[in-house]
């Protein structure tokens, strides 16, 4: 009995492992083999005028609120100006990333320090009435930010021909659209730029976060299956937005900035792609700087990286000379591990609504079966002697059925909880072996226990069928002392409904678990 159960369990595990490997793409990112080499570790910007650019802290900063009129609404903005600066000064409009939106709380440090070096800065609110998690239109957002550019150009003391953009993270998909469509924009600063489409960047970031968290290798299979599918509920059209055509149209000088401790961005690939895209359009004015130990916001220990504000303000104030001044690439040595590339599309589970629907349907079936059976038991008690039949499951069949249904449900819930826990650790840059390694082991053991129950169920069903062919009867299935009922898996409609609901629902959940890697065996 034990050997038979073990053999059946192993066969089921292998079947699910093959099925899981076949139903979706694997994850095998390409390593970066040729690394970008900075010419020097000194990030200082060259090409400054004879008198030098005004250093950070030269001027006191005056801050004032403004209203930016957009099409159909208005947003608040904060202008910071150098007090006592002579002549018309360069200006910078800040373009938000995904994590910022409020003018009073975003870019405070860098906007203030640039203003203290003689650059007029404007941080507008992000327009949020057209911006949601599911729906974002970067080209329309570019038109909205263009109103801030116009406002700053018209401000007294600002050189309208020297107004440029400072974009961070998600904003670096927007700023190239603005600059390509408005050649009058003076320059573009791209900070922590993904460059690749959002879907590719998301897969790259997830891979990097998971590696930092030390998750088991098997968990990586979920990356293309989650990121590559159509998101449940629709939307997310912007996931495949390609900024490359806009980068190729840029005629302005471009400053590309990364922190070497930013695991979410392809920091070498991004710089190379900006250089190549600009060069393809005849623009050689691209400057790249890397700041050692700096994170996504170019901060080290919650402070702007040393030299960052100095370099940006000097580059802006010294244009056009600084745009082509050597060295083109300088700073700390970056170390991008893998290439951010196209994300494979799942073969059978590419529709997120289908994935969610299957899980819900499987769970509903597993729960519905016992409820129907319970209703049948209540009805039987009302009319217990109807035709004298005894209804229910064959001996030895109920417990494996319970184990199968309950195990499939618990394993599915455990997998969801595990993935959410790992996501939290990854986003917080934390490690916890008990959660990461222990949690994955626990989920897989639950899945294995469910297969043991399935094996017991299959073997018991086979025994019952064999016994029935031999004419065996159940001793309790006696009517009037002279009538017997052959051994069956189930007696009565509600009992059969329960069996088929639990089995069907469990199969759906087991296939889903196999798809997400619970039963993989290195296949």
TrEMBL record:
One of its GO terms (molecular function) is carboxylic ester hydrolase activity. The keyword Iron does not apply. Residues 145-299 form the BAAT/Acyl-CoA thioester hydrolase C-terminal domain. It comes from the Bacteria. Pfam families: BAAT_C (PF08840). The chain crosses the membrane at residues 354-380, 401-420, 440-459, 493-518. This is Alpha/beta hydrolase. It comes from Cellulosimicrobium arenosum.
């Amino acid at each position: 009995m034990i050997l038979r159960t073990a053999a059946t369990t192993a066969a089921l595990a292998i079947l699910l492992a093959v099925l899981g490997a076949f139903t979706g793409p694997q994850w095998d990112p390409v390593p970066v083999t040729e690394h970008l080499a900075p010419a020097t570790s000194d990030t200082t910007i060259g090409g400054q005028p004879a008198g030098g650019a005004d250093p950070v802290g030269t001027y006191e900063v005056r801050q004032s609120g403004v209203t930016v009129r957009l099409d159909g609404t208005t947003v608040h903005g904060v202008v910071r100006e150098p007090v006592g600066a002579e002549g018309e000064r360069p200006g910078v409009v800040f373009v938000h990333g995904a994590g910022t939106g409020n003018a009073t709380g975003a870019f405070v440090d860098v906007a203030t320090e640039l203003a203290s070096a003689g650059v007029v800065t404007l941080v507008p609110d992000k327009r949020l009435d057209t911006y949601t998690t599911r729906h974002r239109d970067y080209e329309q957002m570019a038109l909205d930010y263009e109103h801030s550019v116009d406002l700053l150009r018209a401000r007294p003391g600002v050189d309208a021909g020297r107004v440029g953009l400072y974009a961070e993270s998600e904003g670096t998909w927007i700023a190239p659209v603005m600059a390509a469509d408005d050649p009058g924009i003076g320059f573009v600063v791209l900070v922590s730029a993904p460059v690749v489409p959002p879907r590719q960047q998301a897969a790259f970031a997830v891979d990097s976060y998971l590696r930092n968290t030390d998750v088991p290798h098997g968990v990586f299979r979920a990356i293309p299956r989650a990121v590559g599918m159509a998101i449940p509920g629709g939307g997310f059209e912007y996931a495949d937005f390609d900024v490359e055509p806009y980068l190729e149209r840029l005629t302005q000088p471009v400053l590309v900035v990364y922190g070497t401790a930013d695991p979410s961005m392809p920091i070498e690939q991004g710089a190379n792609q900006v250089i190549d895209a600009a060069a393809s359009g005849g623009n050689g004015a691209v400057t790249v700087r890397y700041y050692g130990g700096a994170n996504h916001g170019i901060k080290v220990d919650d402070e702007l990286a040393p030299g960052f504000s100095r370099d940006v303000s000097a580059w802006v104030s010294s244009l056009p000379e600084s745009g082509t001044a050597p060295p083109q690439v300088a700073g700390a040595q970056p170390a991008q591990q893998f290439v951010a590339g196209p994300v494979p599309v799942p073969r059978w589970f590419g529709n997120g609504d289908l994935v969610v629907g299957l899980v819900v349907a499987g769970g509903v079936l597993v729960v519905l079966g016992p409820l129907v059976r319970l209703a049948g038991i209540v009805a039987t008690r009302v009319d217990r002697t109807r035709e004298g039949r005894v209804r229910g499951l064959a001996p030895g069949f109920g417990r494996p059925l319970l184990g199968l249904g309950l195990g499939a449900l618990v394993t599915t819930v455990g997998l969801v909880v595990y993935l959410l826990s790992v996501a939290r650790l990854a986003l917080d840059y934390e490690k916890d072996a008990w959660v990461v390694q222990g949690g994955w082991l626990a989920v897989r053991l639950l899945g294995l226990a469910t297969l043991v129950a399935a094996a017991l169920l299959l073997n018991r069903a086979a025994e019952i069928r064999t016994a029935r062919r031999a004419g065996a009867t159940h001793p309790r299935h006696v009517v009037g002392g002279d009538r017997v009922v052959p051994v069956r898996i189930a007696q009565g409609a509600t009992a059969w409904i329960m069996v088929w609901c639990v089995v069907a629902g469990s199969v759906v959940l087991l296939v889903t678990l196999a798809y997400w890697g619970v039963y993989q065996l290195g296949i």
